[in-house]
Write a structure and sequence with these properties.
509 residues; alpha/beta; D-Maltodextrin-Binding Protein, domain 2; 4-stranded mixed sheet; 20 helices; 42% helix; 11% strand; globular
Length: 509
């Protein structure tokens, strides 16, 4: 029964794959191609020309779970950017978008191949409500979900309460996960799970919010051309590895323009950078600053990078003291996008890759993209920070044991399929061709993707902020470097919090 639709599904998926490859003109939206009945010779020729997408799941396709139902609780919240649920749960039909139509096909093909049925629970919560939402039913033994897909911030805070399942303890006969396979972000997962040999979180290409929630520094190419005779020099600086905060300062310091002509600096004017003093985490985590390291056994020890953070503090103080800087207050994403598309800021701080998909950004001509600056040219590559409300996943301890084989096989298959087919359609076609506005931005997207990190201290910021982020923020707010004294003052408290965290995790067994 489960195999009867596979030929038709494979043919339709192959059609979408060929569309993704051929869709090369910027700004075009591919048209939906409906599956049509083919004579046997034509179908054979089509399948010979394009390998069916379902082949990407390998031997998993030989499994048959007899219609096993699995339940996934997924966030549909769009707090900072549009939800990625459409790239996971999928639309109910094809909608004329290459990547999203391939998601629709993937979901049908994988469910058919494994003979599973997926039930979805849609949840719309702010990130601060995720912990209570998961914790209460799981501790009461009432959760119906086999998997939660929700904000990293909320899921991470579930860890010490003992409601998350350690995937590393899954019985071998039930476990179809292969975290060495392409598509999984194993290093990212290990940073979140903390203890060596434990695996509480699942992060990979299937959970596309990780890429879509990655911070990018957008810049206005039209203004750069007007002020500095083009953007080529700026891009070349990035590609030569020389894009630093010193260079950013050179570009932004003389960018101020009194747009409304009232003779005073206000929010209606043009600035080089608009940013909040509370965004120190972004600078901290993209410049290689740390508060912890691991000993020879892989255990966490406090090891704040005092000297490096002190240098960063001096740089950011200089940026925030520049005449080209404007402080942000409580403006949300919509306001920040408006400042950018209305030509009121040269370099945007805090927006994400997913914001390229908004109508406002798509209707603007002259968008360039940059990674966040290095601290200095000696920094080992550019680093990208994923916002902590990007949606990742975790299995609750209440998961039914007989659901684990189907669940693990399904997630493994989805990850492999997404890595080989969906992500290329989204990243190479949608982002690089449909949404990006120049070839250099496409190269920057590669840099951003390669630079994705999950700094432990960002995920668990409340434990170690006193010797990291807070030291930087205090320096920014006081406009004087107090990093060394702040860290010295905070070490005792940070050590107690680290010990408490590790004790709580040890108690989980």
């Amino acid at each position: 029964m489960k195999k009867e639709n596979r030929a038709a599904l494979a043919l339709a998926a192959a059609t979408l794959l060929s569309l993704a490859v051929s869709c090369g003109e910027a700004g075009q939206t591919p048209q939906t191609t409906e599956p049509v009945k083919q004579t046997a010779p034509v179908e054979a020729e089509t399948e010979a020309a394009v390998i069916p997408a379902i082949n990407s799941i390998g031997s998993l396709a030989d499994l048959d779970f007899g219609g096993q139902e699995i339940t996934i609780d997924i966030s549909v919240n769009s707090e900072e950017w549009n939800t990625s649920a459409v790239y996971i749960m999928g639309a109910s039909e094809e909608i004329g978008d290459v990547a999203k139509d391939m998601v629709y096909r993937r979901n049908m093909e994988v469910a058919d191949a494994l003979n599973v049925k997926v039930n979805w629970i849609e949840t719309d919560l702010g990130y601060t409500n995720v912990l209570k939402y998961i914790q209460k039913p799981v501790l009461a033994g009432d959760s119906n979900a086999d998997l939660y897909i929700n904000d990293q911030y909320g899921l991470v805070r579930c860890l010490t309460s003992g409601v998350l399942y350690d995937v590393a303890s899954m019985p071998a006969e039930s476990n179809y996960f292969d975290f060495s396979a392409k598509g999984w972000f194993k290093e990212y997962m290990d940073e979140l799970s903390i203890l060596p040999g434990k695996q509480y979180f699942l992060v990979g290409e299937y959970f596309m919010d990780v890429l879509r929630g990655t911070h990018v520094m957008y810049f206005n190419k039209n203004l750069i051309t007007e002020m500095y005779e083009g953007s080529d020099d700026l891009y070349n600086t990035v590609f030569d590895g020389k894009w630093t905060y010193d260079v950013l300062l050179d570009y932004m310091k003389d960018a101020y323009r009194d747009l409304n002509g009232d003779g005073s600096r206000d929010r209606q004017d043009l600035y080089g950078v608009r940013a909040h003093t509370a965004w120190g985490n972004l600078y901290f985590n993209t410049t290689g600053c740390r508060t912890v390291s691991k000993d020879s056994d892989g255990n966490l020890v406090l090891n704040p990078s005092v000297d490096r953070l002190s240098v960063l503090a001096d740089k950011i103080i200089e940026v925030y003291s520049s005449p080209g800087y404007c402080v942000m207050d409580s403006e949300g994403t919509a306001e920040r996008i408006n400042y950018f598309v209305n030509g009121q800021v040269l370099f945007d701080v805090w927006l994400k890759i997913a914001d390229l998909e908004t109508d406002e950004m798509r209707n603007m001509d002259g968008i360039g993209m940059l990674p966040y600056p290095k601290l200095d040219e000696q920094q080992d590559g550019y680093r990208s920070l994923v916002h902590d409300i990007a949606e990742i996943s975790a299995i609750p301890v209440t998961v039914k044991e007989d659901h684990l084989p189907a669940l693990s096989a399904y997630l493994q298959a989805m990850t492999q399929y997404t890595d080989e087919h969906i992500m290329p359609a989204y990243f190479e076609t949608a982002l690089k061709i449909k949404y990006s506005q120049d070839e250099q931005s496409a190269k920057v997207l590669d840099i951003l993707r390669e630079g994705i990190r999950c700094p432990f201290e960002y995920a668990y910021t409340e434990y170690f902020s006193a010797i990291g982020y807070d030291a930087l923020s205090s320096s920014i707010n006081k406009k004087t470097n107090v990093v060394a004294s702040s860290i010295e003052k905070g070490m005792s408290s940070a050590q107690k919090k680290l010990d408490k965290l590790l004790d709580a995790l040890d108690a989980l067994g």
